[in-house]
Amino acid sequence: MPQNKVRKTDRGTFESDDMEAAVLAVVEHGQSIRKVAKDFSLKRTILALYVKEKKQAEDPETVCYKKSHITKQVFGQENEKLFVEYDIQCSKMFHGLSVKAVTQLAYNYAKRNNKVYPAS
Predict the structure, then answer these.
(1) Distance between CA atoms of 21 and 81, rounded to whole angstroms?
(2) For position 70, what pLDDT does the model report?
(3) Which helix (H) or strand (E) segment is 12 a member of?
(4) How far apart are alpha carbons 9 and 98 in whole angstroms?
(5) pLDDT by residue (tens digit) across 7-46?
(6) Which residue from 59, 60, 56, 58 is spatially nearest to 20, judged by alpha carbons?
(7) How far apart are CA 98 and CA 108, in angstroms?
(8) Model confidence at 113, in pLDDT bands (50, 70, 90)?
(9) What's the average model confidence in pLDDT over 76-100?
(10) 80 alpha carbon, distance to own chain's centre
(11) Which CATH number does 16-66 carry?
């Protein structure tokens, strides 16, 4: 059975609106990263990464302030849900796939549907 780990703290989490406001305070108003991070209760290093990304972006309006595992998803929520349901159905019919086989199946599915996926 899969484990459902419950988070004990809210360390490392942030709202995308807070991060966007903090980055704007640093980039447009010239405030220091340390002061802004303290004011918005954010990690200084994460804020620095987003500030760097905003400054280097060709179009600064396109910078996304969401977690990287969400922005780099290959499948959308609907496709991923269908894929998981298919995997569960196969395992109930005694055709459970190994982790490596599921990974290969997902790769082949993404490749055939012309999805953008990482090289590795």
Answers:
(1) 33
(2) 62
(3) none
(4) 33
(5) 787 767 788 888 889 999 999 999 999 999 999 988 899 8
(6) 60
(7) 15
(8) confident
(9) 84
(10) 14
(11) 1.10.10
- H or E element at residue 101: helix 99-112
What is the domain partition of the chain in residue ranges?
A: 16-66, 77-112
Q: Taking the model in full, what pTM does it have?
A: 0.54
Contacts of 8 (CB under 8 A, 6+ apart): none
**What would the two tokens of residue 61 be?**
């309006």
Helix (H, G, I), strand (E, B) or coil at 86: helix
* Contact (Cβ atoms closer than 8 angstroms) between residue 55 and residue 79: no
pLDDT at 50 over 80: yes
Query: Which residue's structure tokens are 């990287």?
Result: 68
- Taking the C-alpha atoms of residue 79 and residue 73, their distance in angstroms, rounded to an integer, is 11
| Chain position carrying tokens 């709202």 | 15
Residue 45 near residue 12, CB atoms below 8 Å: no
SS3 labels along 27-66: HCCCCCHHHHHHHHCCCHHHHHHHHHHHHHCCCHHHCCCC
* pLDDT above 90: residue 48: yes
